[in-house]
């Protein structure tokens, strides 16, 4: 077999694999849903992001903490400086009749979360999640900051 024939076979094999990969990728079922969260447009009454030194754990879902007892129970797991600031900020927020105050740890890192987006529905039994932008990579920090989003929906 000559060198030209071997190269031709390799090129044809690569071309056939590329065509096959393209053909099988087309026509994906859209019923599977998007791979990223669905950001919803909701009526946000008030929003505040509180940060303080202390390591926490990023939450996977926002919790309804409209009831002061729920806020106290939820915030017990937060580091003391964060807990104090969250409770003070929540008490200062006005929650109109028929609305709910949600809280979630949205970032633990070197920087305060600058903003959030809301993923999910609203209402007492709906799953709501706040999504904070990703922190810049390769930042060295002396102490971690825990950012908590408080949102009235």
TrEMBL record:
Residues in the signal sequence: 1-25
Q: Which UniProt keywords apply?
A: Signal
What PROSITE patterns does the record tag this protein with? PROKAR_LIPOPROTEIN
Give the top-rank taxon of the lineage listed in the UniProt record for this protein. Bacteria
Name of the protein: Lipoprotein
Q: What is the native source organism of this protein? A: Nocardioides acrostichi
């Amino acid at each position: 077999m000559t060198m030209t024939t071997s190269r031709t076979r390799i090129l044809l094999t690569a071309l056939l694999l590329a065509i096959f990969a393209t053909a099988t990728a087309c026509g994906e079922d859209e019923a599977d849903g998007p791979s990223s969260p669905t950001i919803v447009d909701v009526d946000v009454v008030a929003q505040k992001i509180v940060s303080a030194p202390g390591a926490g754990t990023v939450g996977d879902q926002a919790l309804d903490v409209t009831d002061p007892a729920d806020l106290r129970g939820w915030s017990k797991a937060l580091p003391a400086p964060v807990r104090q600031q969250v409770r003070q900020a929540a008490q200062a927020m006005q929650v109109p009749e028929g609305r709910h105050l949600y809280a979630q740890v949205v970032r633990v890192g070197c920087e305060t979360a600058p903003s959030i987006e809301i993923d999910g529905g609203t209402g007492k039994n709906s799953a709501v999640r706040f999504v904070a932008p990703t922190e810049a990579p390769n930042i060295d920090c002396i102490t971690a900051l825990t950012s908590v989003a408080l949102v009235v929906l």
